[in-house]
Input
Amino acid sequence: MDVAAVLTSVAKSAAHDDLIFPTTTEMALKVQRVLDDPGCSIDQLAKLVRADPLLSARVVAVANSVIYNRSGRAIDDPKSAVSRIGFNTLRVLAAAVVVRQMEGMAHTPAHRQTAVRLWEHTAHVAALCQVIARRVTHVNPDTAFFAGIIHEVGGFYLISRARDFPGLLEGANGSLLAWDEGGAAEVGRAVLQRLSAPAAVVEAIEGLWQGYLAMPPQSLTDTLLLADQLAPVESPLSQLAGNGREGTEANIDVALDDQTLSSILKESAEEVESLIDALRA
Output
């Protein structure tokens, strides 16, 4: 199989075909469109969130996570949840629903298992992005969270199309070598464009594909790269490409002012785990 040619074909499909999503995804995309209106109100958004059980559950769960619930007072209604997390985080969670629904578009048990593993990786990266942005790189945490959520959207689309290319995800280790050699970027760009991803986020994801991490980390690209390398759950597509970490976490540490990266992540471990649990809801 010419994997590079397959990836080019998949990218062309993403760029030109209609991406058909489940009803929940369409509602999440509607929330995104409403958020683009400067005149949108919290009542309007809360009504949309209430209309979809999955999005509603996700918003309430994140609002009650350690990062957003500093007072320890749990809330159970979408309007209060939207008020607590703010419009920017709501945009991130709407994107999370879109990506999570793409996970469900896998057609075979093996592909679904790969998609579930990819979502676990995504959730870890997104949660780490949020914390690293706040504590280390000092970029906008909501933007970093968003970048973490959608950084593997091209991978989810590839999995959803894998049924059309038998053997693509079932070969021996290294069968997807072309994925790490430009395939991820080729497919990812097409899907990100169709989802109207913000330019700053696309630029950061492009930086992730290039793989250069500056030290000390400072930019949105550095935030995403660091989170991706530190995530304990690795992307299964990287493993298929023969570029896996063989079950071991990346060992990265750096001095930052009066702390080290490892000490900051240790202090933030509860926040990270709480946010991951909320994304799993």
Remarks:
- Residues 109-137 form the longest helix (29 residues).
- Strands lie at 255-256, 259-260.
- The radius of gyration is 18 Å.
- Residues 23-103 form one domain.
